Amino acid sequence: MRWTLKPKPPKEQIAALKEALQVDDIVATLLLQRNIESFEAAKDFFRPSLEHLHDPYLMKDMDRAVARIELALSQGENILVYGDYDVDGTTSVALMSSYLKTRTDRVATYIPDRYDEGYGISYKGIDFADDNDFSLIVALDCGIKAIDKVAYAKEKGIDFVICDHHRPGSDVPQAVAVLDPKQEDCQYPYKELCGCGVGFKLIQALSANEGKTIEDLTEYLDLVATAIGADIVPITGENRVLAYFGMQVINAQPRGGFQAIINQVKKTNLSITDVVFIIAPRINAAGRMKHGNHAVTLLTEEDPSLAEQYASEIETFNSDRREADQQITVEALEQIAQLQEQERYTSVVYQEHWHKGVIGIVASRLIETYYRPTLVFTKSGDKLAASARSVSGFDVYNALEACSEHIEQFGGHKYAAGLTLKEENYEAFKQAFEDVVSQTIDKTLLTPEIKIDTKIGLHEVNAKLWRIMKQFGPFGPGNMSPIFMTEDLVDTGYGKCVGEDDKHLRITVGQPFNPQSNGNTIVGIGFGLGEKLPLIQDKQAFKAVYSIDENHWNGTVSLQMKLRDIK
Description:
Radius of gyration: 25 Å
Distance between the termini: 10 Å
Strand order of the largest sheet: 3-2-4-5-6
Number of helices: 19
Shape: globular
Strand content: 15-25%
Number of strands: 19
Helix content: 40-55%
């Protein structure tokens, strides 16, 4: 594990912000590292407001999208809301269809079958629209590369409005409107919206025609916050505002489907991390194990007892998903060992029977063992399909682009992508991908890195700091939970391994060489750090990197260190 201490902001900047905000060095440093350099910027950060959201009409084609949908509403056209089968796609479809249903009853939803149709817009989906007299398709979280499909729809007299956030290719589809802030000629000020976020901007623009304000749309923000968390987009700027208010909705007045999931897991107050690890996998499990329609049905159901029933079905899908991904991970690791590929720069594995719904999760799991760009392939019809995952700092999308001669189609982001290729091209692609990565990756990126915000003394970990820390949330990429480093720690003799196979480390530490510490101690818990026990025994001094967390135990609440690593 590499420890990297972030550069400390200039002393005069820290002093000026301390003065302006009446805070201490630590808080001023953390804010400056997040590019918050003035009283006004800090006020916006600590007090997010819906008024901070941008005008949706700044997005290229928004006027055209709104005009086409308004025309469809006024003419009584049938509208098909089409989205991908993952969390971003299904929440987007739930969002758009729920809103349109407040204005017309001529709305239906369509989620492609992961196995039969694959990712994004499909010919089968367009044929469905044609057979059922839909003249407008609103596509969410997909469509930016569907040039041929949109042309096919046009021949059938079906118009498209595309809401996407993936990187466009050199050409975009000839749709009525293409909303995607990543288009080079789109002047929208915030580029990092997820698909559901782009969909929300569209309903923001549409609802203004009804005289509604942004406050009238907060009920949809639980969906947007879930998509933001699940799609791992930066929680900065507009996403942070949407996530902040979305989390309030999830905790105060969640829609029936979310409430039913929350009832199953018996948790009261959820953080965005809980959304990522509790709600999102369950919504995803529907599309992975059965069909994404189940997720949309759950997310749009208003009858609490039906929502409970759907949530328990989805709970079953989620257990099946968990078993499948554990089994495939074991097989994939065995394959790497059998082929003696432990020392490569990439992991590329394939078995035709692996479940297509979990190969993305398996790719992430393999990175926990072999920290390097990873692709997991399975058979899909007459082709092979793969999910790609990357390591921090390496753009796997660009690497795939460099191997495109071997690929049928691909799409995605810097850290996650999907592709298909012909089976006879698998070995050539595997070698090309290894060559591209080995030649282009900075070798230090192959060791996981912990970025440390700042060094602090143990005496500075107190209730006041924790109160301010909590206001830094919601946390995620671009606004991670602060990581601290403290040196000269000593275990008070209670350090031990806990959990099954003694996997985890529990310590109680003080900083006896620091005169300011006043003999204070704090408990630290390090998941997966059991093997580090020898480093803290016999009163050896050590240093630790950690975040601060609350521990609830027997009705008492205390601060604890969530250890990331010790040396």
